[in-house]
């Protein structure tokens, strides 16, 4: 059996991307074949280099053109995973990879979803709104921000003394624990 392959898109530091790469490093059936980012200076590139996974940077023009499909199709991946990728996926990519793009979101969708809802922005709102729970959502990507089919959600408590950093840390721990497992289950089900 040929290994199933994953391409990961990330915009920032890349801790979730590295966690995914580590999870699949010794996997008998799955491998990460590409890291893509919209930022040339994103930390994810250094992580990809350290983990010996090729990485590329997309310009906005490239990402919204048919040329990006050539680049992505050259990798022949089975699943695209968004791990903190902040651009909306264009229709041409969605059409080329139906039900094969997964995103992780640091909140319990449908709450705190949509354009501009990521990272500390979400955690600040969760605290400002005095929510008692938050968590993560892993979902398929469609043409509307954060509205694709939910594959998995898990909750964690929000404490009265939480700061943005303490809450973000607890949410990150959920991401690290569950994201690789859900990605693995999903790709094996394709």
Give a written overview of the molecule.
The model has no long low-confidence stretch (mean pLDDT 96). Strand 1, helix 1 (15-24) and strand 2 (30-37) form a beta-alpha-beta unit. Strands 3-2-1-4-5-6-7 form a 7-stranded mixed beta sheet, covered by helices on one side. It is an alpha/beta fold and 190 residues long. Helix content is 38%, strand content 22%. It contains 7 helices and 7 strands, in the order E-H-E-H-E-H-H-E-H-E-H-E-E-H. It has one domain (4-189): Formyl transferase, N-terminal domain (Rossmann fold).
What topology does this entry show?
Layout lengths: L3 E6 L5 H10 L5 E8 L5 H8 L4 E3 L2 H4 L2 H9 L4 E4 L8 H6 L4 E5 L13 H10 L4 E8 L9 E8 L6 H26 L1
Parallel strand pairs: 1-2, 1-4, 2-3, 4-5
Antiparallel strand pairs: 5-6, 6-7
Helix pairs in contact: 1-7, 6-7
Name of the CATH homologous superfamily? Formyl transferase, N-terminal domain
Helix content: 25-40%
Measured between the Cα atoms of the first and last residue, the distance is 14 Å
CATH topology: Rossmann fold
By DSSP (H or I, 4+ residues per run), the number of helices equals 7
Low-confidence stretches: none
Proportion of strand residues: 15-25%
Q: Which class in CATH terms?
A: Alpha Beta
Compute the number of strand runs: 7
Second rung of CATH, namely the architecture: 3-Layer(aba) Sandwich
The overall pLDDT, averaged over residues, is 96
Main β-sheet, spatial strand arrangement: 3-2-1-4-5-6-7
Describe the sheet with the most strands: 7 strands, mixed
Rg: 16 Å
Question: How many domains, in number, for the residues?
Answer: 1
* Secondary-structure element series: EHEHEHHEHEHEEH
Structural class: alpha/beta
